[in-house]
Amino acid sequence: MNASESPNPPYFDVLLDRIASGDREAVTAFGRHVHWGLWDSPAAADGSAADYLQAAERMCQRICDAAKIQPPARIADVGCGFGGTIASLNERYQSLAMTGINIDPRQLQRAEEQVVPAADNQIQWTCADAASLPLDDAAFDAVLAVECIFHFDRPRFFAEASRILRPGGVLSLSDFVPQPQMADFMTGGAGAMSEAIRWTYGDVDMSCSLDGYEQLAAENGMRLLACEDVTEQTLPTYDFLCEGAQRWHDRHHAELFLQATGWLRKASRKKLIRYLILSFEKLGDRSC
């Protein structure tokens, strides 16, 4: 099957196989969160799976904090993966009603197996497309999209996020955002690296600049609330991922992974692509 024919990113197929085989590094590093890590002191990263898990949890908490959650609250985590973000919120807060949404039922199954609601929290798992959310209008205080929006139809997702957020609610997300001079290049799929990226990460769209995000927000009744550039704090991620790929049995897939991830590492180090945490506030009804 061509990677573009599946709604599930190829790296999840590899990761689920590694977890099923009992790969301890995969279970430790990615059994909860499947996204980049964040180090307050990148030089202190030690390259271990346990250190990576802590960095991924730190990233998750930073994105959730940008949503300004105030219990009691209703939270929609779109592209919820293995449920790590909801697990983190479940441990940190009480009186949350949380809905995890993912297009891949395998990920939702693992999430449901791994996350048990704490005392006053409620958790629901829903299989759905981010561009067509089966959720009520103006029903949520926060919408989260942790390192997954590049898989979505952005305009439709922004419209859906705006629809389900109450006035004053917040959409918080993280993304690889190109500098203006890179945006047109990224629209073409990262040039020579496009095939490696497609076979590693699936169909991804890293062409939305910060200006593009502000325009999407304005078109959907939202405004940019905050923008945090954490690119430098994510850089140890690349060393960890590339070192791990050296030990994969499937050398063909490992080489594609190293090409794609190496290209993204170079672009990130040069800050041609920035890892941003963005939050957007849903504005009130202007007719009122």
What this model shows, in words?
By secondary structure, this protein is an alpha/beta fold. The chain has a single domain (3-282), classed as Vaccinia Virus protein VP39 (Rossmann fold, 3-Layer(aba) Sandwich). The protein has helices spanning 10-20, 24-30, 49-66, 84-92, 105-114, 154-164, 180-187, 194-201, 210-219, 231-234, 236-245, 251-269; strands at residues 73-78, 96-102, 122-127, 140-145, 165-178, 222-229, 273-282. The protein has a 7-stranded mixed β-sheet. Helix 8 crosses helix 12. The chain is globular. Residues 1-5 have low confidence and may be disordered. InterPro entries: Erg6_SMT_methyltransf (IPR050447), Methyltransf_11 (IPR013216), SAM-dependent_MTases_sf (IPR029063). It comes from Rosistilla oblonga.
Task: Spell out the blueprint of helices and strands.
Blueprint: H1 10-20, H2 24-30, H3 49-66, E1 73-78, H4 84-92, E2 96-102, H5 105-114, E3 122-127, E4 140-145, H6 154-164, E5 165-178, H7 180-187, H8 194-201, H9 210-219, E6 222-229, H10 231-234, H11 236-245, H12 251-269, E7 273-282
Parallel strand pairs: 1-2, 1-4, 2-3, 4-5
Antiparallel strand pairs: 5-7, 6-7
Helix pairs in contact: 2-3, 3-4, 8-12, 11-12
Domain Methyltransferase type: 77-172
InterPro entries: Erg6_SMT_methyltransf, Methyltransf_11, SAM-dependent_MTases_sf
Keywords: Methyltransferase, Transferase
Q: In the CATH scheme, what's the topology name?
A: Rossmann fold
Report the top-level CATH class: Alpha Beta
Q: Counting H and I runs of at least 4 residues, what is the number of helices?
A: 12
How is the main sheet built?
A: 7 strands, mixed
Query: Gap between N and C termini, in Å?
Result: 52 Å
Gyration radius, in Å: 18 Å
**What is the tally of beta strands?**
7
In CATH, what is the homologous superfamily?
Vaccinia Virus protein VP39
* Unreliable runs: 1-5
| Structure classification | alpha/beta
Element-level helix/strand string: HHHEHEHEEHEHHHEHHHE
CATH architectural group: 3-Layer(aba) Sandwich
Mean pLDDT: 91
Residue share in β-strands: 15-25%
Number of domains: 1
Strand order of the largest sheet: 3-2-1-4-5-7-6
Helix content: 40-55%
Shape summary: globular
